[in-house]
TrEMBL record:
This is Probable dual-specificity RNA methyltransferase RlmN. The lineage of its organism: Bacteria, Bacillati, Actinomycetota, Actinomycetes, Streptosporangiales. The active site is at E111 (proton acceptor), C362 (s-methylcysteine intermediate). [4Fe-4S] cluster binds at C131, C135, C138. Residues 117-356 form the Radical SAM core domain. It is found in: Cytoplasm. GO terms for cellular component: cytoplasm. S-adenosyl-L-methionine binds at G186, E187, S220, S243, L244, H245, N319.
Length: 369
């Protein structure tokens, strides 16, 4: 593949040009923060103090930053502009699953979900407002792409969840975010630069970032092959989740239209190369759709494609969107699919269907709004 061809897909799926959100501390590396603060006429070490307030104390209230001189607080507040406004919040599972619909500065809508389990707290975040991948069973895909999110807009979703946990607003007492999955609205690798920036802010140690383990971060993709290769070279041991949804090109061309550009074998080869380079197990995401992709012969084909690889198959009972012809597989078909994969020695689990009562599938709240 030539260098020219490698770059084209990343440009092809770029969002339309729009006004950008205000520059935020979380958009910047620590050296960039120091330079920005020096430009404001303050000492560069103030960057460490401001970063500690945002990433460790989880606050943007400059009035509470009493270690900063009053005059400096006013000037530095420009690096902590408001990014997300809560429009709606819904909860289920006795309050331990919370979905929030956010409005961005330009009116674009995105969603995030906080899920608290006994041993961890996972945040599912959006990376784009809408999505350009056009998968027909996905509410976000049917909405189309509005724009890419900035690094700070992505990070602020996690920081907002962390604030709620630290304040004891989520049942179970004060806690912290341990896992982040880029499985909300958007195709993360189509917004590559901002997503990598966000991953680094999330995983950088305090006060540079939130200090979440990179092994607790999962980046999903429908299979942008050049970007998968690029991600493998970042030196970030995050989990790659490949949204496959069909093991054969004929069906995947329909379910995941990007497959007309990169076929199943090519996408899987990129995933195996990622696993070889990072030593991280690849997660194969497979939404089970009634009478569409849940046949036993397709389970056999999937098993043959992925057996003996550093892989785990994550079967997802489809969370249907209102009015859609696509719906979840019958329980007996789901069980048969699991059995066929297990016969091939493939590690497989069925994802917990949290959030169904609150329109948990990405894009559903935004579509309703």
């Amino acid at each position: 593949m030539t260098a020219e061809k490698t770059e084209r897909p990343l440009l092809q799926f770029a969002a339309p040009r729009r006004a950008k959100p205000a520059r935020h501390l979380a958009d910047l590396t620590m050296p960039e923060r120091r330079a920005a603060i020096a430009e404001l006429g303050e000492k560069p070490f103030r960057a460490d103090q401001l970063s500690r307030h945002y990433f460790s104390h989880l606050t943007t209230d400059v009035a509470s930053m009493t270690d900063l001189p009053a005059a400096a607080r006013e000037k530095l507040s420009v690096l902590l502009p408001p990014l997300l406004t809560s429009v709606r919040e819904m909860s289920t599972d006795a309050g331990t699953t919370r979905k929030t619909l956010w409005r961005l500065f330009d009116g674009a809508l995105v969603e995030s979900v906080l899920m608290r389990y006994p041993d961890r707290v996972t945040m599912c975040v959006s990376s784009q407002a809408g999505c350009g991948m056009n998968c027909p069973f996905c509410a976000t895909g049917q909405a189309g792409l509005t724009r890419n999110m900035s690094t700070a807009e992505i990070v602020e979703q996690v920081v907002s969840g962390a604030r709620a946990l630290a304040a004891g607003e989520v049942p179970g007492g004060p806690g912290r975010v341990s896992n982040v999955v880029f499985m909300g609205m958007g195709e993360p690798l189509a917004n590559y630069k901002a997503v990598i920036g966000a991953v680094r802010r999330l995983t950088d140690p305090a006060p540079e970032g939130l200090g979440i383990s990179a092994r607790g971060v999962t980046v999903s993709t429908v299979g942008l092959v050049p970007a998968i290769g690029k991600l493998a070279d970042e030196g970030l041991p995050v989990t790659l989740a490949l949204s496959l949804h069909a093991p054969d090109d004929e069906l995947r061309d329909t379910l995941v239209p990007i497959n007309t550009r990169w076929k199943v074998r090519e996408v899987l080869d990129a995933a195996w190369a990622y696993a070889a380079k990072t030593k991280r197990r690849v997660s194969i995401e497979y939404a089970l759709i009634k009478d569409i992709n849940d046949q036993e012969w397709r389970a056999d084909l999937l098993g043959k494609l992925v057996k003996n690889k550093l892989v785990h198959v994550n079967l997802i009972p489809l969370n249907p969107t209102p009015g859609s012809k696509w719906t979840a597989s019958r329980p007996e078909d789901e069980r048969a699919f699991v059995r066929r994969l297990e016969l091939h020695g493939v590690p497989v689990t069925v994802r917990d269907t949290r959030g169904r009562e609150i329109d948990g599938a990405c894009g559903q709240l935004a579509a309703a709004e």
